[in-house]
Write a structure and sequence with these properties.
By secondary structure, the protein is α/β, with parallel strands linked by helices. It has helices spanning 2-19, 42-49, 53-56, 76-85; strands at residues 32-33, 97-111, 115-122, 140-149, 157-170, 173-186. Pfam families: DUF3299.
Amino acid sequence: MLSNRLQTALGLILFTVTTFSAPVTAQDNDYRQIEWIELMPEDDLVALLNPPEAIELIVDGSDEDSVASLEDVDDEATQRYLAALESTTVVTDFNNTKIRLPGFIVPLELKEDFLAVEFLMVPFFGACLHMPPPPPNQIIYVVYPEGVELNSYQDPFWFEGTLKIETTASDMGTAAYTLVVDSVTPYTE
């Protein structure tokens, strides 16, 4: 169902914020540790946390069970909600900022031995694969020639690097940010 999928995606973003929150340690001094939700402008977040009433009226598996069914709804809240789902609006303060952020990999290009060299970094497992992608301002595009070995798509990683505001479209989703990666390590608390 549309509402369940979207609510699940939003719930996963918020879950990620609490799950991946960790204290900054001495090794993090060069990087600002951020949370995914910080990459989304406040008005987009408010719109997504307050879905339109029309979503609740959609029956699971019906012909209306898609985002497209909301496009004809005229009210301002619904239109703002739809805009937030596709928003490439970013938080400009992060441009050229050295960040540290946990996330999951959605591979765009794999080399031998399952090395992901081009991928989307997303806040939760299954984003772009098993459900609609997160909003573009919750997706980060990465090219990492060294590659990240993927044993499982469920494995989270810590990413450190310089965040840039650059929009990149792919078959798996649109990213509103790009990360020039310095290091990728398995996620540990």
